[in-house]
Amino acid sequence: MSLSAEKNSTHPYQWGVSLIELMIAMTIGCFLILGITQIFITNQKSYLFQQSQLGNGENGRFALAVLGQELSKAGYRSLPTTILNADNSSISGCNFPAGIYGVFAGVSVVAISPTSLCIRYQANNRADVSCQGTALSSTNQSVIATPYAQSNPMIVEKIALDTTTNSITCTTGGTTQQMVTGVADLRFDYGSGDGPSKTVTVFGPSATQTIGAVRYAALMQSGSSTIRDTTDVPKALSDWNTRFGGTISDNTKVYQIVQDTIMLRNQMP
Q1: What is the rounded CA–CA span in Å between residue 80 and residue 43?
Q2: How confident is the model at residue 269 (pLDDT cuts 50, 70, 90)?
Q3: Is residue 37, in this structure, part of any structural domain at all?
Q4: What is the structure's pLDDT at 181?
């Protein structure tokens, strides 16, 4: 027998992967890839959701700090005996009447709407900054001779919600600047009551008597979309719309409600 005949009789076929085996292997591989992809997408959504919650929490704390800081200035007088007279500011809506009751220093908070208000206070020293973080003008700084001078300049600020940029803004000196971003909605409830008793008897979106306290709430909104199941309304958004009559309907975002209350100086005799 020749060598070639012996070789052919020993190894009549060449071994390899059949078409059926290849198709089965590809099918199993596709299922594995789909499973891994689904796990990746789920983990990514979970990560984005948690990041959005953290972002809302940080923004919410910052919003409360900024609003509390500015509202705590309302009614401040360099000299406690200073009387705040009526003042029609150049800022739209910021028209401060004199005190309703003769024993009061004057109105320091004006309720424009449930989403905007004006405050006024006297500067304390030359290092004071406005709600925009800017220093006082050189003219105002030159007026401040001592921290408790009755002639210290009056600062007027308007705090409002800008729905086009989803931010809380501050207007002073003819310019408007964002203070806090990522805010879907904002509400001020004004606490007022009988002036001479210096008590707050009712909170509401408007005030007919001297405002003694302000309750503020903000609906924080994540920047990322489509990171949650859109078939249901987020609990925070549902609560907000129910409580304040809101009409926000974007279910793709993550929401969080933050709120606080501050007593004002304007009821001090």
Answers
A1: 58
A2: very low
A3: no
A4: 93
Q: Report the half-sphere exposure of 266 (CA within 13 A, side-chain side).
A: 36
Q: Which two tokens stand for residue 72?
A: 């705590």
pLDDT of residue 216: 96
What total of structural domains would you count in the chain? 1
Residue 167's SS3 state is: strand
Higher pLDDT, residue 125 or 204: 204
pTM: 0.79
Is there a domain that residue 241 lies in? Answer: yes
Q: What percent of the chain has pLDDT over 90?
A: 29
What is the CA 76 to chain-centroid distance, rounded? 25
pLDDT in tens, 99-116: 654 445 678 889 999 999
Side-chain-side CA neighbours of residue 8 (13 Å): 5
Place of tokens 């009789």: 9
Range of the domain at 163: 47-267
Q: Which two tokens stand for residue 20?
A: 């059926």
Alpha carbons 217 and 244: distance in angstroms, whole number: 10
| Cβ-based neighbours of 193, under 8 Å, separated by 6 or more | 199, 200, 201, 202, 209, 212
- The pLDDT assigned to 127 comes to 80
Q: In this structure, which amino acid lies at residue 76?
A: Y
Q: Are 100 and 195 in contact (CB under 8 A)?
A: yes
- Cα–Cα distance, 211 to 108 (Å, whole number): 8
**In whole angstroms, how far apart are CA 115 and each of 31, 34, 94, 185?**
53, 48, 14, 8
Q: Does residue 1 lie within any of the structural domains?
A: no
Q: Which of 11-15, 88-92, 260-264 has the lowest mean pLDDT?
A: 11-15
Number of Cβ atoms within 10 Å of the Cβ of 93: 15
Residue 211 lies in a domain: yes
